[in-house]
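Format notes (please read before filing issues)

Several people have asked whether sequences and structure tokens are stored in separate files. They are not. Every record keeps both together, in the order shown below: the sequence lines, then the token lines. Line labels are part of the format and must not be stripped during preprocessing.
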Amino acid sequence: MGRGPRNSTPLSDQDALFLDAESEASPMHVAVVLVFAPGPTTSLRDEAARSRIARFLERGLAIDRRYAQRLDHLPLSGRPIWVDDPDFDLDRHVRSRRLPAPGREAQLRTVCAELVAQPLDRTRPLWEVWLLDGLEGDRFALLVKVHHCLVDGVAGIGLMGAILGVAPASDFESRPLRASGESPLRAELALREIRRRVDAGLELAERGVRALHDPRGTLRRARRLGRGLRRLVRLDWPPASRTGLDAPHEGRRQLAFMATDLERIEAIRARWGGTLNDVVVATVDLALQDYLEDHGLDTRHRRELDLRVAIPVDRRSATEPDGVADRGNHISMIFARIPSGERSPSRVYARVSGALAQAKVSHMAEALEAVMTLAGWSPQRLTRALTRRALALHVANLVVTNVRGPSAPLYLLDAPLERTWPIVPLMPGQTLAVAVMSYAGRLHWGFHADRAGVRDLNHWSILAERAFERLHAEATGSGRHGGAERRGTRLTG
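Then the structure lines:
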């Protein structure tokens, strides 16, 4: 059998930054826990069924050969690239584990937290799926881990759509996932790198010519970038206040989950306006105030805090596809101050809504995107140094991200998907991250924490539920303030 073509693709500058930000205690993969009800022919109780599910997942991933590629580096610059992995083996990436008895949410969270804390092996394709058996009621779950240099949240939704179906199915046509060729030779990589640099220089020259033909437009764009860059380099953004949530990672992780009906969120928006993000961030802010108070910080000291959230922003154009092929990162970030020491849900909501609206028009996301593009013109050592410097600035206390998920039910073969718990990585120095994903009429919240800053994430999740209830009660006049009821957060009754 003859040799196939040698494939290699450089990582984008933004994708590569997630590799530079990673450490053993701070792995940079995104994840999602998918919980399924049992299907007529779908079970993880025997080896044949597990193998069948693995082949069904392989069928969806085979749309994109990137899932059979591993990392390598260009010989001249050290720039990371994707190359085909001739030793790719599906069984190394789709693995099984049985949850300890009694198989409730607590056991699921504990096992998933342990698996999420483990970095992906950079000598292999940067993803893995764990088939988790043993949930009560014959339910089962998948934990899907993919490195952030491979997908962002939107691309992750495309991946979900590729491995799951919109209707129950018992039969499928197999499609193998494998690399299409061999890893390229070092001399071949060096030649490609020289050509890339020449092409990049020509592209920069073309941009300069286009700028000369549109001086007014160029000036407007420069002014917008300048305003955003000024915010970005902290001319008016000193470091955020340090709290118990801000600490180096220990590597011991916790997960907690929550779910709310989208119609309840829409009821809040109908009363006060704003966006779904406003509801999420206001809920997080109210919970954070209670959390800090429970840990000894009184109202006066909380009011002195400068607290901020970092919110990823999708930078895809409206014409770009949403699918597994739309991989990589197309995101930027905005930073917003959130109120501290304020207990009134309506006032918190108004201030959060105003802060997020202001951040959106600050051109900060555009400036950050430009900075990440400029990283492609910098030596790798300088880029890594700038990345570490930016992370050390501590411009936010936590990340809050919102991903729009499927509105219609999905299936793994004939097993219906019940819940989708998103998990985003913890940025260095931050010990709490919040991710929300909509699915089939509900908003699923995933809380991810390192024990260095959050000793009891279950306590935090209860405060978050109570905060949402307070927000909803004041917006709707329902009179339900802060009950401890866990609406839809349990896997079994």
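For reference, the curators noted about this record: The mean pLDDT is 81. Residues 186-213 form the longest helix (28 residues).
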